Write the structure tokens for this entry.
Amino acid sequence: MFKRSLALLLVVMMVAGLFIGCGGNTEEPAAPADNTPAETTEPAAETPEPTEAPAEQVLYWNIGAEPKTIDPGLNAAVDGGHVINNMFEGLMRELNGTLEPAMAESYTVSDDGMVYTFTLRDAKWSDGKTVTAQDFEWAWNRVLAPETASEYSWIFDAANVDTFQALDDKTFEVTLKAPTPYFLGLTAFYTFFPVRQESVEAGADGAWAIDPAKSIVNGPFMLDSYVGGDRLELVPNPEYWQADKVKLERIVGVMIVEASTALTAYEGGTLDVLATVPTEEISRLIAEDPTFYILPMDGTYYYAFNVEAAPLDDVNVRKALSLAIDRQAICDTVTKAGQIPALNIVAPTSYDADGNLFSDQLGSVGLQATAAVEDAQQALADAGYPNGEGFPTLELMYNTSEGHKVIAEAIQEMWKKNLNIDVALTNQEWAVFQDTRKQGSFQVARAGWIGDYSDPMTYLDMFTSTNIGATNYSRWVNEDYDKLLEDAKTAPGQERFNMLYDAGKLVEEAYINLPIYYYTNTIMVADKVHDWEMNTRSTWWFGFAYIE
Amino acid sequence: MGRYVARRFVSMIITLWFVITITFFLMHSIPGGPFSREKALPEKVLEALNEKYHLNDPLWKQYTDYLQGVVVLDFGPSFSRPGIFVWDKIQEGFPISAKVGGIASLFVIIAGIPAGVISALYQNKLPDYIVTVIATVGVAVPSFVVATLFIYVFSEKLMLVPAYGLEEIKSYIGPTIALAGFSLSFVARLSRSSLLEVMQQDYIRTARAKGLSELSVIFKHAIKNSLIPVITYMGPTIASILTGSFVVERIFAIPGMGKLFVESVGNRDYTMIMGTTIFYAAFAIIMIFLVDIAYGIIDPRIKLGD
């Protein structure tokens, strides 16, 4: 009897012990507890600086979900961009909203605006080797090589890059196909960052970038440790050309996906920076927490009307639908994260050559923040459906998500109330939805666009006839529009922007899109963190940040 | 016994093969493909990606290649994280889940069974009521509520434990409670009702009649026999606890298997989904096998090999 119970106990112990044993083996990489100062005193021992203020220069930052990659050439996502922006540096860097020379010490532009010649400064990689023009050439060629399969390689086309070459160690020359005002800004974007050949070749497909032994960087911080799904830690790169300005001694980037957990940690003081805030907490935070910030973001949330599907083939119907919604109410009562009602498709984050905010200057054609009910009803009557009579039930489609659903329901109700028309809501899973939208098998579909570079072209380019089957979900064809955009690609200065304004007007007057709101970033940064920055590409920069 | 194990082993392999086949073909019939993006990838890039991940091969070849890979624990590269291999991620994630889960499982056994036994022995008395009420609450309240409540009370309000991660010993308290809560309550109820049933049996009466002390009746005769349903339940439960709960891991930001699985679903990382599913299936099958072996040890009437 006793022997049997012993045997039972043994089975249980064996099973449990098996896994506890397993846990022990990988404990070290999983929990680098020794070099992560948990609360207070420990790091002071590591870096004794008697003359400095006692504030611990360690930044606890929630990255959110683990970035898919932190290889600059492969990255295509915002979260990876945050990390890369603090580890690498391009020819230029955006600081306080202006472009500053970074790896480039200076640059010249040919009179026709087509040839950029960058002179590199004496900057070093984290292993002490000099950053050369050849590094740029190699990195850019790598992105463009099909076998690299870089998801963002198309941005070289968008930037009109024709050829580039290292004239010598310090001189990098880029020839464009057409003068492109946003090209210089793109040199501060991760796809254009330099990488080191030896480093990249040491770990295929970006594996080098998450291995502290292989990662070689040229930015303010370098990788100290990386635990997938858990955290990464960055320490100052002593070889950075502005290393004297880097004050943080460590950045602990944790990967907490659950927004409410991150907020609790922030409010408990164990996190200093986060960018994912639970929507339901936002109104409380706006009212109570001065460290909660709403920053503009270069992106637009909108609906696309399929101009091939009756009754939406009638511009008056599209106009009526667009005028009849109360954008302010959607922002205030539905999305509630400080979103800005969108009256045109171009987010208000880029400027024309004269320094005007493009979006404001473009204006709107009758759209208001609140519903223009009478105009909308008039337009619907003009289309032959007075007071909505005889109007077929419209189908509004969105990709399955609670957030999209509540907005769709609000709009459904507004259309019913203001136009007396019925709308059926349907949703599809994301991958299916994308195909549906590209194939044009819908009437009204949800869409969103985040600008890739600071220029209206990133939005307007979506609606050319060549982009039918891709980003022109509306399947709208307008030859004048295509021509204006084509011409704008080679036009200089304000002349170019005038063409873009004309194009913008065309797309607005056709009412092919129903702009709803401009996205915002909702972020929290603790009081004690100073000189942090989120640039116009919505990317964090902690290079000169400090804690006090 | 040897023949039984061999036979079970073969049937385990067949079950696993079914799981692999079903997962494989389900994953490959999902519309959209792993590389569909908001901004359509250029044709050349898409071609390079398909080539790299052998998606251009005929389906049967992909299938046989995949089967061959699984045999040597090569689940291929992650589709959405370049440079990362599925098996590496499983090896990273599983020990973390298993560590938290191991503690939770022990907690279930050590606290759940005695609670049920005490409850049964004091049937319809105060200890019974207390255990029953707590167990009912434990079964009814889902783990994410327990986890969120725990963080709210102990991290945010009382600031006794960290809100996330597994940095400190006390970080394990929250995940353990959230992870064990349901099973613990269930085990308590199960062992209570099972013990009550056993106590009605003839052989218990016989044991008492031959003059054994109550203590020895309960411990030598009753409890052991009452454990059969508990053990049946514990096999799959331990498997599921050890492989991580995606809810609990997400809330406590623990980089384990559960989190890995959920994120791979979100990222449409097909190879990762297949890898984690197969791993979980294999693990569950092994646990059920161990339970069957344990039956034989506890109850000699159950003859393995029949």
